[in-house]
Write the structure tokens for this entry.
Amino acid sequence: MIFTSDNAHIVSPEILKAIAAANEGTVSSYGADQLTQRLGEVLGGLFGREVAAFPVMTGTAANALALATVTPSYGAIFCHAEAHVQSSEFGAPEFFSGAKLVTIEGADGRMTGQGLADMLELFPANDVHYVKPATVTITQSTEMGTLYRPAEISQIKAVADTRSLAFHMDGARFANAMAALDCSAAAITCDAGVDVLSFGATKNGAMAAEVVIFFDPRHAEEFAYRRKRGGHLVSKMRFVSAQLLAYLEDDLWLRNARHANAMATRLAEGLANLSGVTLIYAVEANEIFIRLPRRIIAALEALGAQFYDWPMSGDGPEVGTVRLVTSFATQAREVEQFLKCAAHIG
């Protein structure tokens, strides 16, 4: 009953096989190998246009280097108050860009076009006493496990264009969003106005592999230099690219994400039927936030269940909020065992 994080689980067997298959012979280093070259073509096919793709090994590097590429050091990066770049990346986006993160509140973990417009009103144009609005970044799926629909992304883009902001998407759980939405990958990225995507794989079955995708190739050369200076130009790049190719081929990424989402849905439905349990957000991907009696939390932990406490407004001495995350490797029996234990305790 391990529901702490999708990072806690195993590597997909298909990806391990791909790494082993790449471990033959000698090839050119630093991304000049055939696997890395093919990765760009596969991603171009996925999004229906030519892209510039740069594998890296961590989500923090993907976000920080991408944001640094499209944001000047005197600029402002607008993000949701709960965004991962703000809450969990230890200032890496500011470190690599020199820019300032400006947070925007929004219900259910989502920024809105109106919220962005209201914040931009506080930053007069052509006034050197204020940081210059430069970039907006959103997380798909959000830190609350909710999703942005194409129309919502397009609305944010429309506001961003009024001040010529670059548009970045943190897609650490992009696969979970795609598995839940009935649309193409392009519909929630480049077709909706996203300029650069941090396309995640590690949370959904890879060992250590992410890829930064530029839909506007003009930024590609600068990113290549920033990736090298940031320590993420991997010499044996074929092993990173092999993971990403295996992830994309035969829709492994979507199969994994559909399973993770289905496990979260089952877990949420079962918990919602228990007395004293409140779902904080709609469960749209693979994260669940629930408020429940602290005696149940303690009893579940005593039985070996693992999850994170997630203090929120509305908690008190008798009730608390926890986060549960499912993955492609979550077993149905784990979910049923957790629900059985919760029901018995309750």
